[in-house]
Amino acid sequence: MSTTAGYLARRAGQKERVRLLYRRALKDTLNWAVHRHLFYQDASELRDKFEANRNVENLDVIDRLIEDAEAQQRNFQHPDPYIVPWAPGGTKFTRNPPPPEGIEIIYNYGKEDQ
Amino acid sequence: MAAAALRPAILRHIRLSPAMAAPLVGATAAGQPLALARWLARPMSSHDAHLTRDEVVDRVLDVIKCHPKVDPSKVTPEAHFEKDLGLDSLDTVEVVMAIEEEFKLEIPDLEADKINSLPLAIEYVANHPMAG
Hints:
heterodimer, A: mainly alpha, elongated, B: mainly alpha, Non-ribosomal Peptide Synthetase Peptidyl Carrier Protein, Chain A, fatty acid metabolism (chain B), phosphopantetheine (chain B), ACP (chain B), fatty acid biosynthesis (chain B)
């Protein structure tokens, strides 16, 4: 019984690792692609690489495959990835923040009577 | 508030034909007028006003329907990616990334991993202050 639970837990962990790996790799593919139409081709090749090992059952083999793929992904990371402008490291990070609540602009300050 | 004060000041210098002015006033219509009204409310700011929930739902559904493995007729705001739409876990990753791009978001990896259904995705985008 415990072995079944252990098997399932290990399997779930592996699935999560694969999802995260695929997400990171897909983002990296987008970073490397200069144009959108180049990305589509690269993305489908990336997906094929994952699909090739879809039916592997041996847990140890899966672990090794994931480690290899993670190492490969680390080696080929983009040095200057795209960052959404508002996110830390983005071009607009902390630029032009919204004014605090409750601030009112008075355009005729000092000339209210005229 | 500031926009309301600014409006007459701007309108004194700009002449709008009635046809153009109408959608700005009636900003309740979907799509372009809303975006324009949001932009006019705070020009050049990287911080837009919030999206309405309806707009979020519409755009999320559109993104999902455009995925090649999804049958558009099955897409509802309550659908689960894997159970209802028949996607696998890697497709889910792709879909979440597409939603991220649609709303110009950057979802942290571990949070994106937990989004596995349309209600969760809509909830996340609607509550995100930077969704645009």
